[in-house]
Write a structure and sequence with these properties.
172 residues, alpha+beta, 7 helices, globular, single chain
């Protein structure tokens, strides 16, 4: 099946980009990515996500680099988006975590549509207390979900997918 549709095309073409040029990400581009995240679906429309954008050169970016084995990606990124869930806004842990995933996907697709490269850094959540403290945030109020590294791509993305028939539990 080969449907021509800009959304379906963006979904198929988006790849995780881990190397970036030195070209800055503009405020307009960063706001567009954040806005896409804001429009993700959430259970009961509770919109539990909270964002913190950290730009290259901000001392907190280097601190974040020291908290992940992917420091080289963090250091090359022009901007980082830290995605948190507000514990006060959450109503169902599973649904709210699913909403965070939808929010992440919206932001990754928005970055791709703007010609930016981005990667979802999930490993950094293993250092959640250190990340929250390094950012000067309250870990009692916020739960770290991921960090997105953004920049202008300095690599082509690649990736294969399992054939759909291998993933279906029943044939259509």
């Amino acid at each position: 099946m080969d449907l021509v549709n800009p959304v379906l095309t963006a979904i198929r073409e988006r790849r995780s980009i881990r190397r970036y040029t030195d070209a800055p990400v503009t405020d307009q581009e960063l706001l567009a990515v954040l806005e896409a995240g804001r429009w993700a679906p959430s259970g009961m429309n509770n919109q539990p996500w909270r964002f913190l954008a950290v730009r290259r050169g901000d001392a907190r970016a280097e601190t974040l680099a020291g908290l992940t084995k992917y420091a080289h990606i963090v250091r090359r990124a022009q901007a980082l988006i830290c995605l948190f869930l507000s514990r006060d806004a959450m109503y169902n842990e599973k649904k709210d975590h699913q909403a965070a995933g939808a929010c992440l996907q919206n932001m990754l697709l928005a970055a791709h549509s703007l010609g930016l490269g981005a990667v979802w850094l999930g490993e950094i959540v293993n250092q959640e207390p250190g990340v929250t403290q390094a950012l000067g945030l309250d870990s009692g109020a916020l739960e770290l979900q991921a960090v997105i590294a953004l920049g202008h791509p300095d690599q082509k993305g690649s990736g294969d997918r399992e054939p759909l028939e291998n993933l279906l539990l029943e044939k259509l």
